[in-house]
Amino acid sequence: MITFKRSLPFVAAAAFAALLSACAPTISRQGYLVSDVDPSKDIKVGEDTQTSVRTKLGSPSLTASFEPGIWYYVDQTSRKMTYKKSQVTDRKVTIIEFDKSSQIVKEVKTLTLADGRAIDFNQAKTPTRGRELTALEQILGNVGRQTLTNEEDTNPGGQRRRE
Predict the structure, then answer these.
(1) CB 54 within 8 A of CB 65
(2) Which residues does the annotated region (Disordered) include (predicted)?
(3) Which residues, 6 or more positions from 23, have their beta carbon under 8 angstroms from its beta carbon?
């Protein structure tokens, strides 16, 4: 029979191990996962075409909106600790630019996390048409409202009632 005093060190060790494992980081990878291909070395400028690049690397993560001849392959690794925001630890963006007429590779660039820049977004809000409803108006909704035609609606966004 095991006594409480003898089992206390085992229970404490198990609790400590569980506590340590809860603090282990979670590593996740997103995007284009390159395992045995290095796009900056395997893609030959002036030789490879869009078809051969797609064969070697697969479909791009995204293409440029206004220049379909620019392909992006994005690979990102992030690390998340318990109760903290995830933090990007590694990022590689391979940009492959093709000649417009011949579709042959014109340039291959690789950008890393150090090449990135922080962008401040505009915090201004666009005003919406209409008015703010009280809690009671939101609950009751359309009770007592009638539909108005465009000719009868003289106050858009206001309270719509027939008088």
Answers:
(1) no
(2) 144-163
(3) 81, 82
Question: Can you give the pTM of this predicted structure?
Answer: 0.58
Give yes or no for a contact between 113 and 74, defined as CB atoms under 8 angstroms apart.
no
pLDDT in tens, 60-92: 888 988 888 999 988 888 998 877 888 888 888
Question: To the nearest whole number, what is the mean pLDDT of the chain?
Answer: 79
Residue 98 has pLDDT above 90, yes or no: yes
Dig out the tokens for 28 from the structure: 């996740």
Amino acid at 45: V
pLDDT digits (tens, 9 = 90+) for 111-124: 988 888 877 888 88
Adjacent-strand bridge partners of 104 = 49
Three-class SS of the chain: CCCHHHHHHHHHHHHHHHHHHHCCCEEEEEECCCCCCCHHHHCCCCCCEHHHHHHHHCCCCEECCCCCCEEEEEEEEEEECCCCCCEEEEEEEEEEEECCCCCEEEEEEEEEHHHCCCCCCCCCCCCCCCCCCCHHHHHHCCCCCCCCCCCCCCCCCCCCCCC
What's the length of the chain?
163
